[in-house]
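This part of the workshop introduces the protein records we will be handling. A learned vocabulary of local backbone shapes supplies the integers on the structure line. Getting from the letters to the tokens is the skill we practise here. As an example, a complete record with its sequence and its structure tokens follows.
=====
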Amino acid sequence: MEQTSINNNVKQLLAMALADGILDKSEIARVFKSSGRGFLTSSELDLMMKGVTTNVMDSLPQKKEERARLMYELTDMMLADGEIHENEYRLCQSIGVAIGIEEDNIDNFLETVVGEVEMGTPKSKVVKVISRML
């Protein structure tokens, strides 16, 4: 994945992590894991936070597999602190619809993805399930 895609992905994960108003240790760990490094520079974080406060919908991936991976990572982030906050769920709904899930099916889609993630289904398998649903 190219650096711009990584930054956009991290931006979207930060938006999810901050949706409940709290950025906890498990969420930070997921952001670092997604970045592919154990750190973010202050300038990267500044740019990403500006993006988080503007519009995360501007930089959604175009490729089906990348969209599926993003939905997995957002769902995983939503579940990171052990509870699903209403704002986190709404953000997942919005992004899900923006990447191609029918609005009428978004709740069923999220229920399926949440169930798979909670059961500990490997990421690669969940991404395939999501890809088929897109």
